[in-house]
Design a protein that fits this description.
Largest sheet: 6 strands, antiparallel
Distance between the termini: 27 Å
Number of helices: 9
Low-confidence stretches: 286-297
Helix content: 25-40%
CATH class of the domain at 62-211 and 235-274 and 298-323: Alpha Beta
CATH superfamily of the domain at 62-211 and 235-274 and 298-323: Hotdog Thioesterase
Strand content: 15-25%
Order of helices and strands: HHHHEHHHEEEEEEEHEEH
CATH topology of the domain at 62-211 and 235-274 and 298-323: Thiol Ester Dehydrase, Chain A
Structural class: alpha+beta
Shape: globular
Number of strands: 10
Amino acid sequence: MASSAGTTRRVLRVVLPALIPAVAYTAYRFDLARAMKAFFTGSGKYSRIAALALLLWNWKSLPLAWTIRVWNAMIIHLYLRKSHPHTPDKLFHPVISKSHVTLLEVDYNIHKSNSTYFADLDVSRTHLVSHLMSRGLRIAADNVNTKLVMDPADPSRPAKGKLGIMLGATGCSFKKEIKPYAKYEMWSRILAWDRKWLYIVTHFVEKGAVRPKSWDGASFGPTRKGDGKPQDWEKKIHATAVSKYVFKIGRLTVHPAVIIGASGLLPERPGGWVTTENGMAKPAQPVTGGTLDEAGSTEWDWTRTDGELKKGLEYAKHFAALDEMHGLFDGAEDGALGSFGLG
């Protein structure tokens, strides 16, 4: 999700009022019923109907479809739905979004092209962050008034600038192909975060092969029955991807924990938080003692959040280390093989 809530709000304020009279006038001047009758009954109707069916079934690959899919996720969660009062125990729960392989996504191996997974990831991540952190994003977008993040150059004043959420990197490990027109699901959840990046893991899963044990809040479909947990979840996975986001207010980097905490998703942390010179929050003091596996309490406290965070960081740190590969570029110091077109 590389756009900001503030930008979307400004665009909607301009576009929607302009569209309403245009749509009304078009409907007044255009006889829709007659046009539809001519389309479905006139000469050449079978060709038109076949073309329409092809377009509808493959709409996901049409021009501007990616923009519509991403904006749809932001508008639904940030503007049309109320903020969900998710509690800290829901922080690592996944969001499930459904899709299918279109004709234009199929490569010469007759399966979903590896490159098309990344467009799907944009949509799935946007659903996750916009839904899970809607409260924090709204507060951060109005930082001048909410004073969520203070200006490190002048701690008495809030940081100024629009909220931005930028993708820093993404990588995907492919396990099993997805056939043409096959349906699948993307399960995205928070993996971990560090002082700069929020890490998200996404699993591409066979549609309907796995159901959650329960839904948070309203029901979104059937749930898994029984207490037994199958040991072959990996057989249901097509691919697994990791992505990382950075939150910005203007040019100031915001610690992911600030947005997560403003969304009501962090339990009270012993010692609290302090703000560094560059405006990023960090723990005021380390928390010692206690592990995720300690039995007894069913309360979701900081120890359990910290335990899940540390588990995720064990994977995220390897992904973050790939940034060092930028230093491997040497400008073809010893020569290059060639330069070719149609790249």
